[in-house]
Write a structure and sequence with these properties.
mainly alpha, about 75% helix
Length: about 100
C-alpha cells in the first residue's frame, strides 16, 4: 500500500458516517410522521400501501436510503480495490472526495 491508499480511508469513512446519520434522521422522520397522524404505523409492519397509504415524505426518504446501498457500494468496492492493489494516486483520492 502506498500513502495514497491510506488517504482513501477518509472519503470512505465519511460515506459510512453519512449513511448512519441518514438512517437516524429517517427513523426520527418516521416517528414524527406517525405521531402527527399523517400515516399509520401499521404500514411499517406489512408495507402494504393499499391498506395503509404511506406519506410521500416516507416514500422519498425510504427510496433515498435504499439507493444509497446500490451504486455507492461500487464506490466502496472501487476504493478497496485501489487500496489492495496499491494503485491509488492523487487523482483517485481527488475523485473519491
Amino acid at each position: 500500500m502506498n500513502e495514497y491508499s491510506q488517504l482513501l480511508v477518509y472519503p470512505m469513512s465519511v460515506f459510512v458516517l453519512y449513511i448512519f446519520v441518514f438512517m437516524i434522521l429517517q427513523y426520527r422522520m418516521r416517528v414524527r410522521v406517525n405521531k402527527s397522524g399523517d400515516m399509520s404505523y401499521k404500514y411499517f409492519f406489512a408495507y402494504d400501501a393499499a391498506k395503509f397509504p404511506p406519506s410521500e415524505k416516507v416514500i422519498v426518504w425510504s427510496n433515498h436510503y435504499t439507493n444509497s446501498f446500490q451504486v455507492p457500494m461500487l464506490f466502496m468496492i472501487g476504493c478497496v480495490a485501489h487500496m489492495v492493489i496499491g494503485q491509488a494516486n492523487l487523482l483517485t483520492v481527488a475523485l473519491a472526495w
